[in-house]
Amino acid sequence: MSDKEKSDAPAEIMFAQACNMAMAKAMADDPKVILMGEDIADDQGGGVFKVTAGLSAQYGTDRVRSTPISEQAIVGAAVGSALVGYRPVAEIMLMNFITVAMDQIVNHAAKLRFMSGGQTSVPLTIRTTTGAGTGLGGQHSDMLEAWLAHVPGLKVVAASNPADAYGLLYSSIMDDNPVIFIENTPTYFTKGPAPAPDHVVPLGKASVPREGSDISLITYSRGVGACHAVAEKLAGEGISCEVVDLRTIAPFDEETVLKSVAKTKAAVVVHEAVKNFGTGAEISSRIHEELFSELKGPVGRVGSGYAPVPFSPAIEKAWMFSEDDIEREIRKILG
Amino acid sequence: MADKDVMIDIFTRADLIMQSDIKFRKMIGAGQLQIVYYPVRGQEVVSAAMMAAVNQDDYLVTIYRGLHDQLAKGIPSKDLWAEFAGKMAGTCKGKGGPMHITHPETGVMVTTGIVGSGIPIANGLGLASQLEKDGKVTVCCFGDGASNIGAFHEGLNMAQVWKLPVIFLCQNNLYSEHTPMAFATSSETIKQRGDGLGMRSVRVNGNDASEMYAAAKEAVEYARAGNGPTLIEAMTFRFHGHLLGDTGHYIPEAEMEQALKDDPMPILRQQLLDMQISEADIAAIEAKNAATIEEAAQFALDAPYPPGDEYRIDVLDEEIAA
User: Fold this and answer.
1) A70 Cβ under 8 Å from any chain B Cβ
2) Interface pTM (ipTM) of the complex?
3) Nearest CA of chain A to the CA of B279: how many Å?
4) Fewer CB atoms inside 10 Å of the end CB: C or N, chain A?
5) Domain ranges of chain B
6) Cβ-nearest to A116 among B102, B114, B161
């Protein structure tokens, strides 16, 4: 990159832009990277959230193809092409629609490497977006990462900021395993520091964006922003929170999580998904198994309520995990 | 009638299938193998004629009743038998089993245990061939029952819209598990469904080697020329229950009697004799197949099981910690 280009590059970019840039880089680096999904080509608008805008113009509709509204067929075509050397990126417009393709994801993408005795592999990325708080109700907002994290053979990734989104999506596309990459709709257009073009974030590695000594807040995706806000507020009272951003949900970075909690001796796991049977249960349990006798108190969990995502903003707000919930949980543990 | 060499080729594949099926049922019945087995007796000619019309590097996606397709496509008997027996020397190191056979060397990319699920995946293989311009076709086998699942309709629609080089081979044996076709299928034929999706669709007597081969060859040439997919509805019959142990009591006696009278194997054998292929030559093919199967079966019995730790390998590209 020339100096002039460098100076023209924006200091901040949006999450959606970061995803677009990661796909553009992957397509430039590897001719086997292809994209498919509903309305993703420029003639169909470049994606309903414009995340793929401009890519078909640059790389052609052979490599960036709009599909019928057929989630099974989209993921199936991605699985099949991945078996013979392609690196498909399938877009499932909203995470709830992934339910339609679960047979392809769970029975095929996740298992074909194993069931073939390693003769084939499925280097597939499924990008999907979701998140409550925008009044889309029960079938357009669910966080379903725990379903997928429970399936051996799948990796599940969720970035919390544009730079990570760029680095993680690139790694997901280049990974030789099937990866579910979860984007967050409500923060699609939130800006953050722009990554360097060669910025790569390895899968399976958490980050510690805020260090602290009293308690570890273990989270991912939109939970990271909420935990930062709470940490900032409590810092004023002398409570020091460490924030651990998992970045890869499955398999999660146990080493970083356990190291953090071994230091702070207290933890809250925070996610937007429904709390019951959520990923927080697994993470909390692993902490208890390894560090039980050292803990100041039981690991806390924050998640959304046991109900479908409600429509009315008044109910949705009450249902959804909040900074208040996180703060309450921290105070409960630290007494 | 297809020419002599083709007929001998089809017979050689079909006889291997028939004898293998008989041997599997015998060994399972005798307790020598403890596996769930989906018999293929009666459907030999459909697979044999289809696979005689494609190359070894063309792709195949099939289903759990797939022994006939896998043998016809050319998977070596020893590798296949060892996998059926769950042994390390099997095609998939014993981690797939009869319902999940993969053997890329012969183009067998996926065998699925989920009805209809192979169809969307076959599209992906076809898409790769289309993008690569490698001239390969993908054969995707399924039964009549699969035409009642959503993946069939999504998959065939996409294949047609994208003009993918895929041959959808519906082996219509008239029963989806225990249910007769008319009971659960709204259309009279599967071909009509292909027609409705705008796809080139044909309905043939799959048990007739020449007719089946001609349809297969035409579909393959059509796909290789870049014209797109074909749905072949190949009429056939299943001589045994859905799986071994199922007596097939739901199949009316008269229907079974007629089907057995129309057994494609003796008919094909007679066709060879009628083409002046000698009894001795045919017997030699049968003897060679029998020897191959004996050797494969013994190999499968004698081969060691995989180590238990094998479960930690091939889940992801890196080994899973114990």
Assistant:
1) yes
2) 0.96
3) 40
4) C
5) 4-75+107-294
6) B102
